[in-house]
Amino acid sequence: MTQTMAEPGASLLRRLKNRQLLLLIAIDEAQSLRRAAARLNMTQPSATKLLQDLEATLGLPLFERGRRGLKATVYGEVMTRHARLILNDLDRTRLELAALASGATGRLKIGAVISAIPFLLARAVAALKRDRPRLDVSIDVGTSDALVPMLAKGELDVLLARPLALAGRTEFDYEDLIDEPLHIVARLGHPLMAASSLGLADLASWPWTLLPAASPMRKVLAPLFAEMMTHQPLDVVETSSMMTMVALLQESDMLAVMPADVAEFNIRHGLLCRLNVAVPPIMGSYGVVTRRDRPLSPGTTAFIGCLKDCLVGSDASPPSPECPR
């Protein structure tokens, strides 16, 4: 280990320049020193010297030339990842200071995968805002392959997801919240409402609206459809929007598989009914995902507390009605 790498982090940080961090990110994205320099409005010789000075400071090679341009070494990958974290943290600091100056009491950025307990999330955020009305809260909803990298880069404070979305990544902490079952739902008045008994095989010939084929939930549903039929459903409309899914169910005889939190909300409001078909516990639990290398902000800690309080408060809620016979 070089003397430089043995220095405390604060000492190393004093020797780094913001433009070097920006250059690392630009080279990683452009894979070319010339294009990276142009992106940062500097000359190529200036960019070359910045990179050489950084490598000399660290005592390690950060990039090597390949057939497709500059490629980060293992050291370069680590430095580029932390450069993004440092710059994201600085940007978050700027935004928090601006929020405080405008009367807010901090910022909280929440991510939630598309099917993740949206109404539990809404109850928790509403409770949080009652206690902290000036906390600036934003919610990003999307697929796990988009949101997990956002959490890794520091663009989110906390993520609600199933553990399968993490794919064994060790930079995150995960805490179980709720083991949420799946329901098969249809519109009120659906022909299957008149069936005296139903099994999975009885659903094979019906049209479906489902999350996209590449989504983790859809992949996990494959064994369920294998039990229904010898192939995946042929008559399918895919959508990543639960609202669109509900609208499609209202306008057709389609069926859908929904997490209980989503299904029960629509059932309570008279939009859907649950078919009396047992769905095996194939999805597992939802939980809270945070970055292991960052302390939780006060807003994040308060939000997680509200989630747990809402779970305790919902334990006594009555079960959702099934479709009448």
Automatic annotation (TrEMBL):
GO terms for molecular function: DNA binding; DNA-binding transcription factor activity. Residues 16-73 form the HTH lysR-type domain. Belongs to the LysR transcriptional regulatory family. GO terms for cellular component: cytosol. It holds the Pfam family HTH_1. This is LysR family transcriptional regulator. The lineage of its organism: Bacteria, Pseudomonadati, Pseudomonadota, Alphaproteobacteria, Hyphomicrobiales. Keywords: DNA-binding, Transcription, Transcription regulation. The keyword ATP-binding does not apply.
